[in-house]
Automatic annotation (TrEMBL):
Protein name: carbonic anhydrase
Residues engaged in binding Zn(2+): C41, H101, C104
Gene3D superfamilies: Carbonic anhydrase (3.40.1050.10)
GO MF, one example: carbonate dehydratase activity
Keyword Metal-binding in annotation: yes
Length: 228
């Protein structure tokens, strides 16, 4: 496990600022109009901006939650998480992306909870794992999910991405003009041989691989793959 200290944090920030070109933030001094918002899993192995090769500030709005969940609870009801919703209703962003990832620890923890194998978790973590439990239960009951396959967790990751996309599509708070896409970030070469590739698994509720490849185009068809 890598270690760090205050000096390394300061040094890393110094390298960051040294690498910035003059005027790097000029275009976003007075506000932001990000092109897309991407809800990823809160995981140190998932580079939110890196996976899209984002170098310029203001292009991508980058919320993350445990298990890339786009919802939260307000007065007992599920609502779209404010960090996901804010750019869609306040900054004119019209592309929403949900990104799961292979080997997701949150999905694994929810699966263990469903099976009665989970240990005690701090309340703040337990809240998010419990929000995933109904998704995992529904996934296990889905005929497309094969619990005997070695990639069960990754099947459920994909199933969860579908459910998150569905929730955004059905929310009356998400503007009708917003395009919604679901991806799985694969750094374990589950979907293919290119580590770090984001595979398109859902486009506005469309999950048929052939239809997704048609949307992606011939040049990018190899970035479409599904386990389910």
């Amino acid at each position: 496990m890598p270690e760090t200290n205050l000096q390394e944090l300061l040094d890393r920030n110094a390298r960051h600022t040294d690498a910035l070109e003059s005027g790097h933030f000029d275009a976003v001094q007075d506000g932001q109009e990000p092109a897309a918002v991407a809800m990823t899993c809160a995981d140190s192995r998932v580079s939110q901006e890196g996976m899209w090769a984002v170098e310029e500030p203001g292009w991508l709005f980058t919320p993350s939650t445990i298990g890339n969940q786009v919802w939260d609870r307000h007065e007992g009801d599920r609502v779209v998480d404010g960090s996901m919703l804010y750019p869609l209703v306040q900054t004119g962003t019209d592309v929403a992306v949900v990104v799961g990832h292979t080997g997701c620890g949150a999905v694994t923890a929810a699966l263990e909870a469903v099976r009665g194998d989970g240990g005690e978790l701090p309340a703040g973590v337990r809240k998010w794992v419990q929000e995933l439990v109904p998704v995992i239960e529904a996934g296990l009951a889905d005929d497309r999910v094969d619990p005997d396959r070695a990639d069960l967790v990754d099947q459920l990751v994909e199933y969860n991405v579908d459910r998150q996309v569905e929730f955004l599509r059905e929310s009356e708070n998400v503007p009708a003009n917003v395009s919604i896409y679901g991806f799985v970030y694969d750094f374990q070469q589950v979907y293919g041989s290119v580590p770090g590739r984001a595979y398109l698994v859902n486009a506005g509720g469309e999950t048929d691989p052939d239809a997704l490849r048609a949307l992606a185009g011939d040049e990018d068809a190899d970035q479409v793959q599904r386990l389910l």
